[in-house]
Amino acid sequence: MIPSDILRPSLSPPNAGLRILMAEDHADTAKSTALLLELDGHEVYLAENGASALEVAECTDPDVVLLDIGLPDMDGYEVAKKLKARNTVKCPLLIAITGYGRDEDKRQSAEAGIDLHWVKPVDPALLQNVLKQLQNVVAS
After folding, report:
1. CATH number belonging to the domain at 18-139, selected among 1.20.120.1770, 2.30.30.240, 3.40.120.10, 3.40.50.2300
2. What is the 3-state secondary structure (H, E, C) of 100-136?
């Protein structure tokens, strides 16, 4: 369940899938997750490192960013801070999906402005449910 204080309105048309950016350096994880999300009607953009994630975000204005913390060029915390600092109409929902699960990692996620911190492997049904909740908010 998404806490109501982190749901943000989107510019996506009602009943449309969400625009989702996935920053993940493990190709198989990125491709399989993208396939799942596309089957649910979402538009998915992939980035294999932090710099490309920031570039893709500028071009696509995503509704959601699925963010690995252990990216090769800059960590996910830094990517999140840079996304939050952009001067855009909206800030995407930021979800860390990472192998980093210590309390310190979760604290750093919160400090970086990451809305949800999930430890891999994430149950696909959980991801689908959260995205559906956000999609319902967008459509209302």
Report:
1. 3.40.50.2300
2. CCCHHHHHHHHHHCCCEEEECCCCHHHHHHHHHHHHH
